[in-house]
From TrEMBL, chain A:
It comes from the Bacteria. One of its GO terms (molecular function) is 4 iron, 4 sulfur cluster binding. Residues 130-283, 423-559 form the Nitrite/sulphite reductase 4Fe-4S domain. It comes from Azospirillum cavernae. This is Nitrite/sulfite reductase. Gene3D superfamilies: Sulfite Reductase Hemoprotein, domain 1, Sulfite Reductase Hemoprotein,Domain 2. Residues 63-121, 349-409 form the Nitrite/Sulfite reductase ferredoxin-like domain. Pfam families: NIR_SIR, NIR_SIR_ferr. Keywords: 4Fe-4S, Heme, Iron, Iron-sulfur, Metal-binding, Oxidoreductase. Coiled coil: none annotated.
UniProtKB/TrEMBL annotation, chain B:
Pfam families: DUF2849 (PF11011). This is DUF2849 domain-containing protein. InterPro entries: DUF2849. It comes from the Bacteria.
TrEMBL record, chain C:
The lineage of its organism: Bacteria, Pseudomonadati, Pseudomonadota, Alphaproteobacteria, Rhodospirillales. This is DUF934 domain-containing protein. Pfam families: DUF934. InterPro entries: UCP030820 (IPR008318). It comes from Azospirillum cavernae.
Length: 563, 103, 167
């Protein structure tokens, strides 16, 4: 291994020799597993879960490799390595996903050990990005920077990354297991649609603890996570999760893949019975063996020390001047820039959703530019958001204008974060072996239709999310406007839902009416927008608020009236 | 070789070592281009698929083998479903990639 | 069938007696949990060692009250992907304090061997023709773990520990 320090100040966990040895051993183990598969010692049935646990899927055109970006945070050095891998082993681009990871689409099985080795050079891996194990833990993309943050979710996400790595008991679960943590007042991590959703909080004494929601999830049967425990103290964090996973591993259904997620177990057992089972395990597990020692937490927290912020005034006159001179920049600031907890700093979202573009795709050249900009403007660190954008979390307000100009030069300056053009789309039938319909072309058509930045601003906060099949990787259930691709005798159709919400006021969207063709879908979205604009009481009434007030009626009428 | 009932089938897989999409060609050889794929009747496809599966597992050659329907459009064979159309060409959103790029 | 113990293929002193066949009294045998439930009185006074085989869906709690009667518990994996057995073994050890042999039977692959050992298994029934090298490698290829488990591990720092270090 040719180890390259991945960036001293970035808010990532810094490996030491032991971590490096572990990842290195895992790469060698996979190298032997690939050899055993190619020699026939392992059957495809036996090899499949093994390759999945190393992030390797077989898709429509080739193997797809999903790289773990733990809690979505990485350093510029790491991103540059991802760009290099994309050029060497793939076709010069990558796809950022709703799981805050990166996927390559054109991978060869026989190259995979070498790719994993290249990742290990910068302390990265593809472990547990797939398979029926605990997946990469996700968190708020503004973690460590947001003004409304109470607890730094990275610390606990990293503890879970370690604790779940090759967990001997929980690596062959009934089905995949996804955990999300939010430590801020606003939930940007969609915690209640995860198998376990955690709200990290503080009690009156200032101690950290967690509210546990269990059994949320999208897919074929969407469920909103149920409150299982209001408060789990930090020292019980691991023990309580161990208890949940043990109950799930023993009682989760294994007879039907569509009923194997923990959401079905919670639903079938009933919340009270499920809670009782977990509490019983927890009562026994609670003790020295599983106690999360505050020293562990303190040690891991040192990895996430804030970068050396300068003492700056709360506001920047340079920023105000630039905004006044350049309306396009002012628009980008209004839409893509969020408040930072350190005075004089800001959080900038780099949209990977140019009008007509492929949501979440970035070329290796763009990755290199983003890496350079992260180094220049954000302490060498960046984040991947679950809405498939990139975030530079610590930018001086004084430097936002320079940053935007450089972004704009490489088609990365789109001002649409959270607006109608900021569409989530899964890879769909263009790449995915499970898909029933394409998702990307529809996203492209919609974002092109609403390309005008001023029109997007007028429409305001409105998320569109598209999935190419019922597995719902595009999170369509929790979109203000959700679109699900379905296959009807080999032809693609799209079912529209409205009223979904991924935040703490979680809601699953309702189907508006019969599925429509791709072309009709774009017009239908436009019609929904027009009905909203015509009905809203004012600019401050969001789409979801208008929908809640007027109901489906006017929307349905407009879309399906002609039928 | 068009079949009497007009429904044709072809057989596809991904090559184990690199994942590349392949089709069963004439005389049981695997080919990379759909243009070279054998077009079979349903009965022929069933037999050929079973034989190809057994062979592929023995040789560690291909995985995820299956048969799909093909129709004839202006004399040219075309997969019936979008899924296989995309498989034979490449992503519809990146015409510079996949088999369509090489053509 | 080859028996894997401590990373090597070893001699199997035990034999499984299918339901309905007579149970020899002079050597160690394994019977099904169902047979144990139906005929438990017939094993009163037995001197030779007795083992019990649990089906994949039978959890540790079912056999817990009778554990002192068994020198071996065999836990069945119907498919290697069905990981309930890992919890069963762990519960036998941690919750019920079982100290006898725990054997993995059914479909397991060498790639799971370290997990089996770490959750409390002592032996594995491997399929005929298995590659002994893969089982031996499985115990040494990963030397770091990130969570406490049944086997003796040496804590390195905080969450992490080194595997394969006795006591």
């Amino acid at each position: 291994m040719n180890h390259i320090a991945p960036g001293a100040r970035a808010g990532i966990y810094h490996y030491d020799e032991i971590d490096r040895r572990f990842v290195g051993e895992r790469v060698e183990q996979f190298r032997r597993q690939v050899e055993r598969r190619l020699s026939g010692e392992l059957t495809e049935e036996e090899f499949k879960p093994i390759r999945l646990m190393n992030g390797l899927y077989l898709q429509l055109h080739a193997y797809m490799l999903r790289i773990a970006v733990p809690y979505g945070v990485m350093s510029a050095v790491q991103l540059r390595k991802l760009a290099e891998i994309g050029r060497t082993y793939d076709k010069g681009y990558g796809h950022f996903t709703t799981r805050q990871n990166l996927q390559y689409n054109w991978i060869k099985l026989e190259d995979t050990p070498a790719i994993l080795n290249a990742l290990a050079d910068v302390d990265m891996h593809a472990l547990q990005t797939s398979g029926n194990c605990v997946r990469n833990v996700t968190t708020d993309q503004f973690v460590g920077a947001a003004k409304d943050e109470v607890v730094d979710g990275r610390v606990y996400a990293e503890i879970l990354r370690q604790w779940t790595s090759l967990h001997p008991e929980f690596t062959y679960l009934p089905r995949k297991f996804k955990i999300a943590i939010s430590g801020a007042a606003s939930d940007r991590a969609a915690v209640r649609v995860h198998d376990v959703g955690l709200l990290a909080r503080r009690n009156e004494a200032g101690e950290a603890g967690f509210t546990f929601y269990v059994g949320g999830g999208l897919g074929r049967s969407p469920f909103i996570g149920k409150l299982v425990r209001e408060w789990v103290a930090e020292e019980d964090f691991v023990a309580y999760l161990e208890a949940i996973l043990r109950v799930y591993n023993q009682y989760g259904r294994r007879d039907n893949i569509y009923k194997a997620r923990i959401k079905i177990l919670v639903h079938e057992l009933g919340l009270e019975k499920f809670k009782a089972e977990v509490e019983e395990e927890f009562a026994r597990l609670r003790g020295p063996k599983y106690r999360l020692d505050p020293a562990i937490v303190a040690e891991i927290r040192t990895h996430f020390a804030p970068p050396p912020f300068e003492d700056l005034p709360e506001t920047s006159s340079a920023l105000e001047r630039a905004k006044a001179e350049n309306p396009a920049f002012a628009n980008w600031v209004a839409v893509n820039v969020a408040e930072h907890k350190a005075p004089g700093y800001a959080i900038a979202t780099i949209s990977l959703k140019p009008p007509g573009g492929i949501p979440g795709d970035a070329s290796c050249d763009q990755m290199d530019v983003i890496a350079d900009l992260a180094e220049q403007y954000s302490f060498g660190e960046l984040r991947v958001s679950h809405v498939q954008n990139i975030v530079l979390a610590h930018v001086k307000q004084d430097e936002l204008y320079a940053l935007w100009q450089k972004l704009d030069a490489v088609n990365l300056g789109t001002a649409n974060a959270g607006l109608i053009g900021d569409i989530i789309a899964c890879p769909g039938l263009d790449y995915c072996a499970l898909a029933n319909a394409r998702a990307i072309p529809l996203a492209q058509a919609i974002s092109a239709r609403f390309a005008d930045p001023l029109r997007q601003r007028t429409i305001g906060e409105l998320g569109i999310k598209i999935s190419g099949c019922i597995n719902a990787c595009g999170h369509h259930h929790v979109a203000a406007i959700g679109i699900l691709g379905v296959d009807k005798k080999g032809t693609e159709f799209y079912q529209i839902t409205v009223g979904g919400d991924p935040t703490l006021t979680t809601a699953i969207g309702d189907i508006l009416g019969p599925a429509v063709t791709e072309h009709e879908a774009v017009d239908a979205i436009e019609a929904i927008v027009e009905v909203y604009l015509a009905n809203r009481t004012g600019e401050s009434e969001r789409f979801l608020d208008t929908l809640a007030r007027v109901g489906h009626g006017p929307f349905k009428e407009r879309i399906y009236a002609a039928d | 070789m068009p079949s009497p009932d007009g429904t044709l089938h072809a057989i596809t897989a991904n090559r184990l070592r690199d994942g590349v999409v392949v089709f069963l060609g004439a005389a049981g050889a695997w080919v990379e281009s759909f243009a070279d794929a054998a077009l079979l009747t349903e009965a022929e496809a069933t037999t050929a698929l079973a034989a190809a599966k057994a062979q592929a597992e023995r040789d560690q050659f291909g995985v995820d083998l299956y048969a799909f329907e093909v129709e004839s459009e202006n004399g040219a064979a075309l997969p019936v479903k979008m899924r296989e159309r995309i498989r034979t060409l490449g992503p519809s959103v990146r015409l510079d990639l996949g088999k369509q790029a090489a053509a | 069938m080859p028996l894997i113990e401590n990373g090597r293929i070893g001699e199997d002193a035990w034999s499984f007696i299918p339901d309905g066949e007579p149970v020899p009294n002079d050597r160690p045998v394994i019977i099904s949990f169902e047979r144990w439930q139906a005929e438990r009185a017939s094993f009163d006074g037995r001197n030779a060692k007795l083992g019990v085989r649990l089906k994949g869906g039978t959890l540790a709690g079912a056999i817990a009250p009778d554990l002192d009667r068994f020198a071996l518990v065999a836990v069945e994996f119907p498919k290697f992907r069905d990981g309930r057995g890992f919890s069963t073994a762990r519960e036998l050890r941690e919750r019920y304090g079982y100290a006898g042999e725990i054997r993995a039977v059914g479909h397991v692959i060498p790639d799971q061997y370290q997990f089996l050992v770490r959750t409390g298994f002592t032996s594995v029934e491997a399929p005929e023709g298995t590659n002994p090298e893969s089982w031996a490698n499985a115990l040494t290829e990963i030397t770091i773990a990130f969570q406490p488990s049944i086997d003796d591990t040496q804590p390195l720092s905080l969450l992490r520990r080194k595997l394969g270090v006795a006591g």
